[in-house]
Each structure stands twice: as C-alpha cells, then as structure tokens.
Request: fold
Amino acid sequence: MLTIAGSCHCGKIKFDIEVNEIITVQECNCSICSMTGYVHLIVPGSKFRLLSGKEYLTTYEFNTKTAKHTFCKKCGIKSFYIPRSNPDGYSVNLRCIDQTRFTEIIIEKFDGTNWEKSGHRLKHLSED
Reply:
C-alpha cells in the first residue's frame, strides 16, 4: 500500500489516502463531473485522512442530497467528496493527488448520466 498526498489548488486543504500501486479510476459523464473534469478514485473511509483545512471546506448538495460535494472556500477546488454511490467512503479527484508513484492508472468510463442504472457498480470500491 502507498500513502499518497493530495490537496486543493491553494493548499489550504490537505489530505492523504492509502491505495495500491495500480489503481482504477472512473471518468464520469454526469453533469457535475463533466463540467469540472473530476476523475474519481473511490477509497474506503478508513483509507482517507484529512490532514488540514477542515475550516476551509464548504458543502454542496443536490438531487437526493446523499452526496456531499466538498469544495475549498478559498480556491473553489473539489479535491474529494462523499459520493452517493459510496456514502461510507470518499471519492478523491485523481487530478488533486500525486500521480507519480503509481505503476499504473486504469481509467474506466462510468455512465453517471444514467446513475440509477449504473450507480450500484461502484459500491464495492469503498469496502475495506
């Protein structure tokens, strides 16, 4: 297992995650992910640690209000959030972590536009 550092753009929010050297991420086509360029790396809650910046986080909810989209109040970047598909874990934005230590990054397409039909495919990703 690797411990990988991550942050928002301004660096106020810092976190780390524990993951394997080979990871699989999801590129989602839903409206919010498409507009922001978010690439999901879903990890169990036990593998995510917020190091600093809790006071800079703000939350956006929509639709079912199950997902907790967190953003930095200063720079506006969503570096991680609690996804609707995995409320027991975190989705970390691949673009907000140090990618240099991975031996392989596998990118899967995910049909978030039809979330009700495909959301269940992600549940296993937050299990320890």
Strands lie at 2-7, 14-19, 22-28, 39-44, 48-52, 57-60, 68-72, 80-82, 89-93, 104-110. The helical segments are 31-36, 115-118. The domain at 2-115 is CATH 2.170.150.70 (Metal Binding Protein, Guanine Nucleotide Exchange Factor; Chain A).
